[in-house]
């Protein structure tokens, strides 16, 4: 399946068209770390991380699912060798914590952007995650409401792509 993100703010897949949020920096072909932009292109969908303490049962999907723990993070420091990778906390480099107080990271789909190879400064932690209630812009991710994200995941399998822009 190919998931499409169109620049008028919708995710389209199968027979669904769902509202989404995207990066505060808009859509960019040449994304840079910290620009708040959502990268344009076609990318594979990777692992699904989820809060098992908040979501039972786990998301039903053909993608690999991994429960989030309080010690999981994502390195967003372009000067560190762990840049744009899942890390264990505590960690010496700048990073995002995946275990959050809000619901935004209750479900995270790793978009395989800047992964093979990883290029320092080209952007990190590009996910599909839960949107804030007002669909306010993200730091570069795509965000859907929880129900929409669960519908999307139910249709996804290993090898599926997301096309942005």
TrEMBL record:
<dbReference type="GO" id="GO:0016740">
    <property type="term" value="F:transferase activity"/>
</dbReference>
<keyword id="KW-0133">Cell shape</keyword>
<dbReference type="GO" id="GO:0008360">
    <property type="term" value="P:regulation of cell shape"/>
</dbReference>
<feature type="active site" description="Nucleophile">
    <location>
        <position position="141"/>
    </location>
</feature>
<feature type="domain" description="L,D-TPase catalytic">
    <location>
        <begin position="1"/>
        <end position="165"/>
    </location>
</feature>
<comment type="pathway">
    <text>Cell wall biogenesis; peptidoglycan biosynthesis.</text>
</comment>
<dbReference type="GO" id="GO:0009252">
    <property type="term" value="P:peptidoglycan biosynthetic process"/>
</dbReference>
<feature type="active site" description="Proton donor/acceptor">
    <location>
        <position position="129"/>
    </location>
</feature>
<dbReference type="Pfam" id="PF03734">
    <property type="entry name" value="YkuD"/>
</dbReference>
<dbReference type="InterPro" id="IPR005490">
    <property type="entry name" value="LD_TPept_cat_dom"/>
</dbReference>
<keyword id="KW-0573">Peptidoglycan synthesis</keyword>
<dbReference type="GO" id="GO:0071555">
    <property type="term" value="P:cell wall organization"/>
</dbReference>
<protein>
    <recommendedName>
        <fullName>L,D-TPase catalytic domain-containing protein</fullName>
    </recommendedName>
</protein>
<keyword id="KW-0961">Cell wall biogenesis/degradation</keyword>
